[in-house]
Structures are given as C-alpha cells and as structure tokens.
Design a protein that fits this description.
The complex is a heterodimer of chains A (127) and B (157). Chain A has 127 residues and is α/β, with parallel strands linked by helices. Chain A contains three helices and six strands. Chain B starts with a strand and ends with a helix. The chains are: A alpha/beta (127), B alpha/beta (157).
C-alpha cells in the first residue's frame, strides 16, 4: 500500500476472510472460467467504475482484471498490470488477455520479458 | 509448532494436507493448518479454513517452520524470520491449472530461498531436521517506487 500513499484508493477483489476486513471495497465471487459469472462481473464492474470514477487501476491479476481493464479502456482510465511473482517464465491467462489494453505492463522476473511484447517492463518484484 | 498454509487457491490440495495430518500423528509437535478450499478435514492437526493477513503472520511468527505452496505466503513467513518448506501444487493431480508452481519452486530452490519438497513422502524426513534455517528477506523497494512514478505521471496527465 506504500505505493498509493497520498491517493484515495478502493479495492475490487474476491470475497474471503482476508478481504472482508478491507475498508473501501467491492467483493466479487470467484469468476474462474465460468462465462456467466464473467458476464455478471462485467456489469458489476461497470457499476463500480461509474460510481467511483478512478483515474488509475492497478491489478496483480486473476480474472477480475479482465472486465476491469477492458472497461477502463472504454472510459480512458489508465491501467497498470503486475504479472504474478509466482510466474518466472510462464505467463498467466489473464496477463495475456489484458496485455493489449494495459497502459503499463510489469513482470516480476526478467526472464518473463521475452514472453510478452515490447510493452512489458521489469521494475523489480514485490519484496 | 508447524504451520501449514494453502492460501486462497480455489482448488483442493488434499495431497499435502493428508500427508501433513499423517505426520502430525507421529511427530509429537503441534501442527496447525489453514486449509482454504481443500476438502480434506485433518484429524490429528488443528485446522481452520481462512484467516486475516494479520492472522497468517501471527501463525508464521509462532511456528518453527512453515509448510506452504510456492506463493506469496513465502514472504509472509520469511518476514517473520521463519524457515519455509514449499510443496508445489501439480497439474497432474488437478491441484492447479498449470505447473507454474513447480517451475517457481525449482527457481527459488536454485536461488537458495526455500527448501522445496516435490514428493510429499519426503516431508517427514525434512521436517525432522532440527537445523532448518530461515532465509533473510531482502526488501526491494524498486517495484513500489516504480508504481509511485507511474501513478503520479497518470495523475498529472
């Protein structure tokens, strides 16, 4: 959270014991590969973005980033994607899907750079 | 005390929890498990499904060793100065969608960051070693600083 100091923030994440304690949040159920839940997530995300009007969206992934980043493109909200630390040289499905619409695309291992296009950058890891 | 944690992953990780529960019955050391979405219910170990971030850190701090999948939980344990043993989830057992955890465990093992155990039958021997040493977590602020820079740039534009 150090990175967001001085900015107003809110979370869009999955509902769990770990996330229920967050202050300003929207909790979704797991999207996984279910297209119906994904469609529902798009609608819910649309409502959230219209209500919150964020300037920037930062995501460390999972499928939630898909509706968030594509709708952000539509509303000209800037997006920063951070590929998972657990991925050394094997891209995530979500990473591949959001890569084209991300304004900033970061990977946490240098070996991963060659797996994505020119836009990908390595700026250290979440340590 | 040994703390076993499998995070928020939506797939079951019975292989690890069954083996750790079996070990809990013979080791004479308390075993606590955070079982998440795993369907197996331990009999010898104490368990709970989820807790808060502070809760996980507290269990890591109190434990002699943390047994986990290769994920962010490694950092939570190392932050508390506790040695970590990782057991990757494998695709062939339907514990994960691909074998990135296997790659990641090998990578961290090569870098000397964790002890990796690929065959759960070997956990018993590794856990009985008394000389498990913690790896010091070296903080890296580069990513946080890069994020600050990007966010400030976007706020101005």
């Amino acid at each position: 959270m150090d990175a967001f100091e001085g900015h107003q923030t809110f979370f869009i994440t999955y509902d769990s014991a770990r996330t229920r304690g967050l202050e300003h949040k929207y909790l979704l159920r797991n999207i996984g590969t279910n297209p119906l839940i994904m469609a529902h997530a798009f609608l819910y995300m649309l409502r959230i973005l219209l209500q919150e009007r964020p300037r920037v969206i930062v995501s460390t992934g999972s499928e939630i980033a898909i509706p968030a980043f594509y709708l952000a493109k539509l509303f000209r909200i800037k997006t920063i994607f951070i590929e998972s630390w657990t991925r050394v040289d094997r891209p995530t499905g979500t990473g591949k899907i959001v890569y084209p619409v991300s304004d900033v695309f970061l990977v946490q291992w240098e070996q991963m750079l060659s797996k994505y296009g020119k836009k990908a950058r390595y700026e250290g890891a979440i340590l | 005390m040994i703390f076993v944690t499998v995070g928020m992953h939506t797939k079951s990780f019975d292989r690890l929890l069954k083996k750790m529960d079996e070990i809990a019955g013979t080791l004479g050391e308390e075993v606590i498990m955070q079982i998440g979405h795993t369907s197996f219910r331990p009999k010898n170990a104490k368990w709970f499904d989820f807790t808060t971030e502070a809760g996980i850190k507290e269990w890591c701090k109190k434990s002699r060793v943390v047994v986990t999948q290769p994920a962010l939980s490694i950092l939570e344990a190392q932050e508390q100065g506790t040695p970590v043993i990782v057991v990757p989830r494998l695709k062939k057992y339907n514990e994960v969608i691909d074998d990135h955890q296997l790659d990641f465990a090998r990578h961290l093992e090569r870098e000397g960051k964790v002890i990796a155990v690929y065959d759960v039958d070997k956990l018993d021997v590794v856990l009985r070693k008394i000389d498990l040493k913690p790896v010091k977590l070296v903080r890296d602020k580069r990513l946080v600083n890069a994020l600050k820079k990007y966010i400030e740039h976007f706020e101005r534009s």
